[in-house]
Structures are given as C-alpha cells and as structure tokens.
Amino acid sequence: MSLKADEMSRDTNESSGSRPSATGHDKTQYMLVEYVEDLDRYCPGGYHPLQIGDDLNDGRYRLVDKLGYGGYSTIWLARDLQRARYVAVKAITADASPCTPEASLMHSLGNSPSTPGGEIIPPLLDEFWVTGPNGKHKCIVTPPAQMSLFDAREASTFGLFQPKVAQSIIAQIIRGVAFLHSNDIVHGDLHLGNILVQFPESIDSYSTLELYDKFGEPELEAVVRLDGIPLSNAIPTHVFIPGWFGVRSDEIALGKENIVLSDFGESFNPYKIPKFFSKSLPLLQPPEARFSDEPLSFASDIWTLACTIWEIIGQRPLFDAFWATADRVTAEQVEVLGLLPAEWWKNWHKRLEWFNEEGELDGTSRGHDSVHRTWDMRFDYSIQKPRAEAGLEIVTERERRAFEAMLRPMLTFRPGERATAQQALHSEWMKGWGQPALEESRSIFHSVKG
After folding, report:
1. Which of 23, 81, 186, 355 would you label with 337, given CA atoms 20 to 30 Å apart?
2. Do β-strands 135-142 and 73-80 pair in parallel, antiparallel, or remain unpaired?
3. What average pLDDT does the segment 131-149 reach?
C-alpha cells in the first residue's frame, strides 16, 4: 500500500495555509468578516443568501437569529408561525443539496428516542426546498439546540466540564454512535462542534423581542467587495455573527447536559457506498484515511470518537499540533501510540524528520523537540493538571486505568483490529462511571421536570 494519491498535494495546501475558494480564485473578493461563513461561497452552487426577518416555506418559518454555519450550510433560529415554536433551519448549499443523506437519515433514525442511543439523533420536523440566485437549496428543520460542546468550552476560562457532566456526555455519545453503527450508519464527522447541548427548558414561550432581551439582539456586519463593485444578488448585503444562547462548559449542571448529534452530511452506509476520504478535522482523522487504500468504515468513527472522548474529559486534544499538517498529525499519533504498521511506516516518506527507523524521537532531526510525550504525560497535562488548577476533582487511579483500557483499543492503528462501539459500550469505564453518571443525570432531570 502507499500514501493516497492526493496526500502530497493536500499536505502542501495545509502547510501553506492557502485554500482555493469555491469561485475558483485563490484570493477572496470580500473584506474579511470574522466568525461568519466563507463569503466566497456565496456563488452559484454555494450558500443561499438569507437575512434575519426572511420568511421561508410559504411564510411558515421566520428567521429571527443565526445559530451557526459550516462548509455546506448556514443554520438559523426561526419561529414556526404555524406551531408557535422555535426551530432550527439548516439551509444547505446548492451543490450539496441533491446528494446530502441528512434528511433521509434523520427521517429513518430520528424517531427512535426509546431505543438506547436513539435519543441523541434529532427528530426531523420538516424539510423543503428554496430556490435562489445560487441554485436550489434543501432546508432541514429540527428542534434548536443551545450550543455545541466546542462553543461551551471556548466560553469557559478552563475549557473543562464538571467531572460527572463529562462522564454523562461521553456515555451519551458512545450510546449514540453504537446506535448509528447498529443501523449500518457511519457518522463520518464526529467532533465537539457537532455535539449539541439541548436547551434545558423550552424557549417557545418567548416572543422574538423577549428572546432578544434575554440573549441579545442579532449582530450583523456589512458585506463589502474589495474592488468596490456593487454586490450581486448572490450574496446578502449583511452577514450575521452566530448568536450566543449557551453557558460556559463548567456551568453546565448535571441533569442539563442532554446532547444531540448533528451534521449528518458526511454520513454513509459502508455496505452500500464505498468512501475513501475522510473530511474529519485534521487532528481527528483516522490514519487509514491517509495510508490505506481500503474504504472507510465503522472503525473510522471509532477513532474520531476516541479523540472526541479525550477532549470531553480533559482540556487539550490527545493529538495536539499547532499547525496540523498531515505529517505532524501522523507524528503525534506515532509518538503516543508507537510505530505504524510496517507498510504504512515504510511509505511515510517524512518519518525521519521526527523519528529514527525504530520509531524513537530523533532530537537532532531538523530541531524538533526530542521530549517523548507519552500517553501518561498527556493524560496528566491535558486532564489532571487542568482539573486541579480549576479546582475540580481529578480522575482517580481506578477510573484512569478503566478509561485507558476503553480508549486504547479504539485507537489501534489497523482499523480491522480496532474496538467496536459495542465493546466501548460494554467497557468497564462505561459500567463503572459513564452509565452511572448518565443515570444520575436523568434522575435529576426527571425530578426537576416532575
């Protein structure tokens, strides 16, 4: 086996930081606006230009705020005028709309709240199409979520969850992935930004003005072309910074950390659709996405799930690189987990920039840090030390051993030898810490609700 054909070009793009825009130009046409979607994606095949106050689906949904955005969609908080409730409307780019599996998958799996793990799949409330200057866009309607785990951590000083809250969230996401896999679905893009915390209580009773009074009014920025040419109708005159409806990660109380899994745009059935490339975040990408010619399957989800679990229980990622090129990520993986399989190791042409042939860090090679940051070292500075500094309970030795016994097999290099979601679900850590925390959380939730 060899590195995939596009690996070197992908590595070059990551190293330089350049990225061609959807318009085919390397240089943006618009003045930079931070914390919003790529404005160059407002083009044929790209985003649908939307503004707060717009009505969609024959006037049923009125946009009242922006919840977020991704490479293939913008997500809006809308008032369902027929049902007097708030919903999330996801407007997908025109080029992705015909092929996204999201709506059909949510339709088939999102109504299984009584099935273990099925409760974290959001129900599909509605779907419709809208036509605009950039094409035809599928819109998906779901209940709104309060925030992502990523945003909750970013808002926090220490970037940590309360220990039992972290345990409960991990238990929920393991149950959810096991549910997906039992239904022959690979999520394909697990990370903190795609795990959402539900609102602890309904916001439906708020009027739009009351909603703004409680959470703040929408923040907007004008769109300006750098060349001074007037804007076309393909792009809105203003873009909106996503509103903040959440709380800091350390302020999430047990009983209020119910999650849903979002963004099924990369999901697939590996028995029906062979998929060879991962679009996961670079630090989370499974090694087979780079080194193997075999199609991806459930094991690729297990790798990203393990990396995500580490980030939920701690402060820093397991694999941590300031500039996450493919080679730097591979170096991190080898440093933590040991030598790659022989054929992968042989075909990793830049291995000697970090290691000798035995896989030992080579401190003389191009000035790289020769300190071997082992699993245990990373556990201490990513999890234990930040918890102690934040005044939180550190992980006990018994839980630490069980946690490692669950996670290590999920990070085996060869996908065929990797632990399954069912094995993680029935691990000692889940039985001794994850499931008890989840049960305590639900007991609190139901006692308050009752």
Report:
1. 186
2. unpaired
3. 96
